[in-house]
Amino acid sequence: MTAFNPFSIVLLVLSSAFQNKVTVAAHAKDACGPRGACRCFPQSPKETVDCGWLGLTDLPTGIPANVSALYLQRNEIKKLDEESFQDMMILETLDISYNKLADFPEYLSSKLIELRLAGNKLTKFKKDFFLRLSNLQVLDISYNKLADFPEYLSSKLIELNVGNNQLGNMDLAILSPLKMLQVLWLENNDISYTSTAFVSGMDLLTELYLRGNYIKILSARSFINKPYLKILDLANNNMKIESPRALSCLVNVETLFLSGNKIENISNESFHSFNHTKTL
Length: 280
What we know:
Number of helices: 2
Number of strands: 15
Strand content: 15-25%
Structural class: mainly beta
Strand order of the largest sheet: 1-2-3-4-5-6-7-8-10-13-15
């Protein structure tokens, strides 16, 4: 006879309750309120609404117009109407990453500071989509199917993640107006580039991730004027180092990844300024 295990019963009840919650949330109409699907945190005059991880297939109705932070990550949303965010005039943070979106509404609040769209099925943005988002500081559009780098990005961007897309022969000169940028992810995009100063203009960079591309050559000008760069990932590029000075200008780098390249030897001159390096 099998012994009675009260602990198993408790687990079964909790699991069933969680599944029911997700099922109800997936078909719920209202975001907030007594029977709302989401977690809503009013902080007058703004409100935070968290609808993440609920199995939602559609955007809930009833999201307050004064929402300033809206989290919709890790759901099953496939489509949004053009007017989905039209009434959210003070929206500053929007996270709708890891859903199933193939396109995205054109209108968003011009006050938006942080936008996360990673892990969807986006192939492109309308040409002037980012033109209205002049206050954007954080943008994550990684793990999509983008073949073209977005135009008219905000000059106020501090963090930009476009990693794991399909950018191919992207002209990195398009990044030069982003003078405030501090963290840039471009890994695994099959970017083919042979120019010498390929990250010019972004003098405030602290982290740069270029792993898994086709950047062929490092020259003496590749990282010129990058005094704040601390993390540099160049692994898996089949790259050659043209000049010892290509690395010697990285005076503050703490972490450097160079594996998976065609580097046969590196002279001592390349590392004479590496006083802060912890990982190589």
